[in-house]
Amino acid sequence: MPAFLGDGLGWFIGLLGKIGAGVSSFMATSVGIEVGVSAGFGIAAGLYSVGAVVNEFARRGGDGDGQPDYVKRFYKLYQGKLARCIWKIFRKDANLLKRQTLKNAPYIIKNRSMRTLGKPGGPIYGQSRAGDETVGKNGTVRVANDIKDKPYAGALELQMRSYAHELGNKLHRDIIAKGGGKNVNLQTINGTGGTTDGDAGANIENCIFGNMVP
Question: Which residues neighbour 67 within 8 Å (Cβ) at sequence distance 6 or greater?
Answer without folding.
Answer: 102, 105, 108
